[in-house]
Write a sequence for this structure.
């Protein structure tokens, strides 16, 4: 897909995956709306990239109105042809029943699913609706939506019931959404990352994270880099025959009990 003259929307655009993807898309010729809650980081990224190439829109991924405003801003930049859903959020993490015999709160479970699955659908549906109004390219394509799952959606670990359920939902949504949107010329793909070094680890030194998780990756024996996710996202954008599937990017990492 040719990106010159087109716009893109990246939710979670100042996070690890998001920012790397924004940079890749801008370099490829797209004008990008950075949709995130962090105004300070968003404004700083726009300043680095240039206001003619990027725009920050404060966005709550769980809000229809907020996402609608971000989609509208992207359309003002040019025909929206790419949406990358890379937002994160809190995932408390605990066993379904703890050692005191108390159940994991339903409200916490519901909130995690809201952030990682329902919000993904919110962005997917609104972005696809905008793309469906585009003039088709010579290839017949009007756009592509890239969602983000996780290997936890396939092989969740202890304490990941809510997160695994949400990401498993994204995985299950992929093929159905691609088939639903095929008549509109909109592709849908999902990336399922393994263990990557991103801002989600906060101030924990990289060496500490590498020591704990890097050794469990078969090859290469290290954490993933955010730009490796972004590189794959751009390849999906450019290859029209990639549709309706989930690509694991995890160095052959598998979690076994």
């Amino acid at each position: 897909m040719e990106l010159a003259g087109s716009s893109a929307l990246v939710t979670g655009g100042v996070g690890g995956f998001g920012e790397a993807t924004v940079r890749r898309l801008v370099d490829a010729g797209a004008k990008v709306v950075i949709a995130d809650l962090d105004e300070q980081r968003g404004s700083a990224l726009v300043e680095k990239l240039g206001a003619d190439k990027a725009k920050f829109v404060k966005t709550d991924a769980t809000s229809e109105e907020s996402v609608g405003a971000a989609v509208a801003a992207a359309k003002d930049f040019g025909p929206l042809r790419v949406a990358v859903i890379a937002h994160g959020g809190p995932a408390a993490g605990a066993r379904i029943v703890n050692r005191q015999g108390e159940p994991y709160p339903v409200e916490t479970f519901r909130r995690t699913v809201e952030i990682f699955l329902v919000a993904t659908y919110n962005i997917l549906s609104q972005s696809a609706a905008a793309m469906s109004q585009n003039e088709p390219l010579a290839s017949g394509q009007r756009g592509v939506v890239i969602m983000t799952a996780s290997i936890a959606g396939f092989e969740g670990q202890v304490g990941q019931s809510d997160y695994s359920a949400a990401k498993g939902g994204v995985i299950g949504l992929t093929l159905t959404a691609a088939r639903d949107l095929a008549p509109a010329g909109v592709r849908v793909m999902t990336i399922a990352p393994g263990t990557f070094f991103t801002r989600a680890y906060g101030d924990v030194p990289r060496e500490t994270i590498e020591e704990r998780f890097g050794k469990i990756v078969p090859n290469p024996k290290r954490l993933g880099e955010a730009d490796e996710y972004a590189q794959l996202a751009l390849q999906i954008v450019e290859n029209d025959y990639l549709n309706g599937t989930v690509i694991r990017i995890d160095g052959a990492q598998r979690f076994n009990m």
Summary: The longest strand covers residues 186-193.
